[in-house]
Amino acid sequence: MIFDKKSVDLFDNPFVPCCGKYFVVPWLVDEMEVGRVLLSKFSNKSGADFKGYAFEKYIIDVLKYCGIPATAMKNKEYQCDVAFLLNDVLFICECKNRGVHKGNDLSFNEMDDDIEQLDRIANFYKENSNIVKRCFQNAGYHKISFNEVQKLIIYSKVTHGSVKRKGVFIMDIYKFLQPLGR
Q1: Are 166 and 107 in contact (CB under 8 A)?
Q2: Is the pTM value of this prediction over 0.85?
Q3: What is the mean pLDDT of residues 105-121?
Q4: Which secondary-structure segment (H or E) carries 43?
Q5: Mean of the pLDDT values across residues 73-99?
Q6: Residue 129, CA atoms < 13 Å, CB-side half-sphere
Q7: Start-to-end C-alpha separation, the chain
Q8: Could you give the CA distance from residue 3 to residue 166 in angstroms, rounded to a whole number?
Q9: DSSP codes, 107-167
Q10: Where is pLDDT greater, at 145 or 97?
Q11: pLDDT band at 182; cut points 50, 70, 90
């Protein structure tokens, strides 16, 4: 947990060596949750598979556990990592393993590429609701209806915030899970 040349960020390595002592950034420690640090540290060092398919499946499983219809929607060109239905709203989600923070703040420049990708995917499924319905039916859901589509980007790395930018909700996995009680 000591910051050195191999460190990815201060979140995983909050102790900064200097003059034979260790210093810690006060705001970082104040907001730090030991469980998150250990999970992040474990996944970075051990190669634990909390990215890609495993990350997407985890989100789908949590949503299903909470009684929320959820599935992935895969098409040749348009891969929706997670889609879920809540109160006649279809949420189309893009899951990202990398963080988008500079000094633990959300970086708009890095998000714009992800937003552009999600916009392309969401527009396809918005225009092809029959494919959406078929994907949910294949996942075992039969009463499929939605009047609205919302876009959401979920990062597996802590971003210390959530924002809505260009019509897209952006947050880390911890902010996403808070209302679900997990």
Answers
A1: no
A2: no
A3: 81
A4: helix 34-46
A5: 91
A6: 11
A7: 26
A8: 35
A9: -HHHHHHHHHHHHHHHHHHHH-HHHHHHHHHHTT------SEEEEEEEESS--S-EEEETT
A10: 145
A11: very low
